[in-house]
Amino acid sequence: MSSEIASRGWELASAEARNAAHPNTFHIPPREKRETLVPGDGAQLLFDIEIKEQGRIVDRGIDRMWVIVKARTDNGYVGVLDNDPGTGENLHLREGDVIIFGPEHVIATNTPPREYVIQKYGSVFFGE
Predict the structure, then answer these.
(1) pLDDT computed for residue 57 by the predictor
(2) What are the angstrom distances between the C-alpha of 115 and each of 76, 98, 118, 126?
């Protein structure tokens, strides 16, 4: 178990590694598309999540969840989780949390309506 799973109950999984292992069935956008996201774009990522209750693992698996890109960094992106990951005594992940990720984590992209992002996260999301 990774230290991130042990301390936070989750970690990001590599979409590129999964694609390499299953190229005929697990498709991801071209690298160029995954490297050129802009604030307001949606990126679907793979979250490896472990849920505990009363100290025992009751669920472990990969969830696909959307993150809205807030900013680009030298190594990737800063985004905001736009899904409800559920709850668990060890799971430190909530809708609206900041997520740091790279192009290697992206399994799909979209562009949610700007009005949706502003209504949900405020105009400050875009630095307005």
Answers:
(1) 82
(2) 25, 20, 5, 11
* Strands annotated E in 15-97: 42-53, 56-72, 77-81
Retrieve residue 71's tokens: 């900013």
Bridge partner residues of 61 (DSSP): 49
92 pLDDT exceeds 70? yes
Mean pLDDT score, 54-59: 83
Distance (Å, whole) CA 110 – CA 31:
15
pTM value is: 0.92
Nearest to 107 by CA among 38, 39, 12, 40: 12
- pLDDT attached to residue 128: 65
CA dist., res. 69 & res. 126, Å (int): 10
Of 55, 56, 48, 67, the closest CA to residue 10 belongs to 48
- Ordered domains of the chain (ranges, CATH): 3-126 (2.30.30)
Q: What angle do CA 27, 83, 38 make, to 5 degrees?
A: 65
Per cent of the chain over pLDDT 70 is 98
